[in-house]
Specification:
This protein is α/β, with parallel strands linked by helices and 326 residues long. It is built from 11 helices and 13 strands. It binds zinc ion (2 copies). The site of one zinc ion has 9 residues, from helix 2.
Length: 326
């Protein structure tokens, strides 16, 4: 098909998709404010639900017009890392090949665009079931899936366990999503700590108990999540993790290198996990929770904004999650 400027299908396994609902990632706030390591300008946006526009001849599982969740990481689905679900470390593409930021952003662009190229369409694109508002699940591409990995594997090991979430990193959606997913998966209780009043209100509406003041000591909890981005928050989460418990940090510590209470962690057999989330394997799990009516990610949305007002809205302070719709 003849086209003007814009992406074309590079191979017969690729698709072109049109982002319909694009959400901010918590990282986007830091990119816009210049606090992230790579300063803009570059094409922004790496969470979206998109509509399939054009498919290569070898793509068999999708049809034009279908709504899909687009994982923020490029992955082939066939290399050793992808076969283990470690799609954020796909070896078929350069390290950290993502949309919307990172070393490969000029190649892949961002989701605040008219068209986006998805190179391994059959593998990467996750169909969004009928009846779902694209805006509600736009963050499945990254932040909800990031939150899912912080609580779901630990709750599978210890069903019904109590969960502590320290929220607040950047605009703070990941901590809210972690609380929401833990509740959706049947945690007996979720305690959400955050100094921010609005986010505490959201967490309470989702069913979490909330605390504004960070206590000296708290817990222990079998499952803890550091989504605070504050070295003291990480310390608190680790010290609040029960013997044989699991603490997962979703926060990125760009500058400050937190000191870990390693002797206590050793003595109490505490497992600590951190790292970039592998989004693709989590997306179907997230969508299934939404379809089942157990998870309501739209509760974390500050507001939805028309696509053509995205640039202005990004510069206004005070949002936790913006969703741009066309
Ligand atoms: Zn992100
Ligand atoms: Zn791969």
């Amino acid at each position: 098909m003849a086209r003007g400027a814009g992406p074309r299908l590079p191979t017969d396994r690729a698709a072109l998709v049109r982002p319909k609902a694009i959400a901010t990632c918590d990282l986007d706030a830091l990119i816009v404010s210049g606090e992230a390591p790579s300063p803009p300008p570059f094409p922004l946006g790496h969470e979206c639900v998109a509509e399939v526009v054009e498919l290569g001849d070898a793509v068999s599982s999708l049809v034009p017009g279908q709504l899909v969740s687009v994982p923020f990481q490029i992955s082939c689905g066939e290399c050793a890392a992808c076969r283990r679900g470690h799609t954020g470390n796909c070896s078929s593409v350069p390290f950290m090949s993502t949309y919307g930021f990172g070393p490969a952003v000029e190649r892949w662009g961002g989701f605040l665009s008219d068209l986006v190229c998805v190179p391994y369409a059959d593998h990467m694109l996750v169909p969004v079931p009928d009846g779902h508002q694209p805006a509600a699940v736009a963050s499945a591409s990254d932040n909800i899936s990031d939150a899912w990995r912080a609580v779901a594997p630990a709750l599978a090991e210890d069903p019904g366990a109590a969960v502590l979430v320290l929220g607040g990193a950047g605009p703070g959606s990941i901590g809210l999503f972690a609380a929401a997913v833990a509740i959706a998966l049947g945690a007996e209780s979720v305690l959400y700590l955050d100094a921010d009043h609005a986010r505490r209100q959201t967490a309470a509406a989702l069913g979490a108990r909330t605390l504004a003041e960070v206590p000296e000591r708290i817990g222990p909890f079998p499952i803890t999540v550091d989504a605070s981005g504050d070295p003291n928050g990480l310390q608190l989460a680790l010290n609040a993790t029960a013997p044989d418990g699991i603490c997962t940090s979703t926060a990125i510590y760009f500058a400050e290198q937190p000191v870990l209470p390693l002797l206590r962690m050793y003595a109490q057999c505490v497992t600590f996990k951190t790292g970039r989330a592998h989004a693709w394997p989590a997306i179907p799990q997230v969508l299934a929770l939404v379809v089942a009516g157990a998870l309501h990610p739209e509760a974390a949305t500050t507001r939805t904004v028309p696509f053509d007002q995205a640039a202005q809205a990004l510069l206004e302070p005070g949002w936790t999650k913006l969703v741009f719709e066309r």
